[in-house]
Write a structure and sequence with these properties.
With 401 residues, the protein is mainly alpha-helical. The chain contains 14 helices and no strands. The chain has 2 domains: 112 residues; 283 residues, no CATH class. The longest helix has 32 residues. The protein starts with a helix and ends in a 6-residue tail after the last helix.
Length: 401
């Protein structure tokens, strides 16, 4: 491990204890300035330095950026969240919350669950259940789900290693290699990548939830389903607001409130809504772009040829979708004025699904190609247990060749 990699990793890991201590002490302007300075140093270090290992580089950049974006509003325009967990009904809960140790544990819970711990079911794309499962029931059910999704991801990853799906083959000029393969191959690559991303997202989230609940870091109700109903994705706005994960929504809304306060905007106006939308997509781009900035140099390319490779395509992808959502909203407003029926007809939903699919298939290259170039996906397995290889050895035959 190089010196740059070691420093980068230590700085990234320091974000966790830093944020855990944020609410242990009484707020003061001096302390908030100290936190702001430390945040600046952390993000700058992760952005400038590079790691030898792509996976390590991505995780360091991802967590540092995400935690910094989450902590920043509490240092500026937003009041810190209530340290008392409303779901603790014991008589001595107030005394527990007053101790520094309890506040530190609360801080760990706060950063481990992006939707928040001091308020229940902080997610808007899926309704809360009538009854929360017990810890034993939750662990039993999630263990099965993690195993099944792990098998699916293992199969998809084996297919990817043996096939030419979303493999980077071009130079750094332009926006990656997928577009150079033709529209049909681009659509196939993108479809496979989207299915893989869908399954990997669920697998990683369910695994984190399982570990957190087993270790009593958080509770089952702190981990609602990560993805909303796919049948709601008949518009691009619904896809991003309901069907795709809402892990960062709490962060987006903090910055939207800050912009509204700064300019004195009514949050219910069209202008405020569109500013919030573009801001949310831009922040999403940052969350994905900064981790790629510290990736190892692409294999076989000299360092002086590496200037364009800084994660910019990630921001391009999200800003394209912000613009597409605006176009969709304008068209929808005009179209709705020409019809009397307010409910959506089945054929209109089919057109909507087609529109969303086309938008994703022909723009997701901006999201995937830089990841391929970085070497992030150059590994034999993603689940760790190599289920397919174990099954092939046991049966003495190869399923995918």
């Amino acid at each position: 491990m190089s010196t740059e990699s070691a420093i980068r990793k230590l700085v990234a890991l320091s974000a966790f204890p830093l944020q855990s201590t944020r609410f242990m002490f009484a707020p003061s302007p001096l302390r908030e300035c100290q936190y702001l300075f430390i945040l600046f140093i952390q993000v700058a270090t992760v952005w400038i330095l590079r790691s030898d290992d792509a996976q390590e580089a991505f995780l360091c950049g991802f967590f540092t950026t995400l935690l910094a974006l989450r902590l920043l509003p509490t240092l500026t325009w937003e009041l810190p969240p209530d340290l008392v967990d409303d779901r603790i009904n014991t008589s001595d809960s107030d005394e527990k919350q007053k101790s520094l140790g309890a506040k530190l544990l609360w801080g760990l819970s706060w950063i481990s669950t992006l939707r928040g711990v001091s308020w229940s079911w902080q997610v808007k794309n899926t309704p809360p259940p009538q009854v929360y499962p017990s810890r034993i029931d939750y662990v039993s059910r999630k263990s099965v789900e993690v195993f099944l999704y792990g098998v699916i991801v293992d199969i998809l990853w084996k297919m990817r290693l043996l096939s030419d799906f979303t493999k980077y083959q071009g130079g750094l000029e332009g926006y990656g290699s997928s577009a150079s393969k033709g529209l049909i191959q681009l659509a196939i690559n993108s479809a496979f990548g989207l299915v893989s991303l869908y399954c990997i997202t669920i697998y990683n989230y369910e695994r984190m939830a399982l570990y957190a609940v087993i270790l009593h870091i958080s509770r089952p109700e702190d981990w609602p389903p990560i993805l909303g109903p796919i049948e709601e994705a008949y518009s691009l706005r619904k896809f991003w607001a309901k069907s795709w994960h809402q892990l960062f929504r709490n962060i987006f809304e903090k910055y939207s409130r800050g912009v509204n306060m700064l300019f004195g905007l009514n949050p219910h106006t069209t202008l405020s809504r569109n500013i919030s939308r573009f801001l949310a997509f831009f922040i999403s781009g940052l969350i994905h772009a900064v981790p790629l900035a510290g990736m190892p140099y692409p294999n076989g390319l000299p360092k002086d040829k590496n200037t364009p490779y800084r994660g910019s395509d990630q921001i391009v992808f999200f800003m394209i979708h912000a613009a597409l959502c605006l176009v969709e909203e304008l068209f929808s407003n005009i179209y709705m004025k020409t019809r009397k029926r307010r409910s959506v007809r089945p054929w209109e939903k089919q057109i909507g699904f087609t529109w969303v699919l086309v938008c994703l298939l022909f723009t997701v290259q901006y999201l995937f190609d830089e990841m391929e170039l970085s070497g992030l996906n150059d590994k034999d397995t993603i689940t760790g247990w190599r289920f397919i290889e174990w099954l092939e050895r046991m049966l003495g035959r190869s399923f995918i060749s």
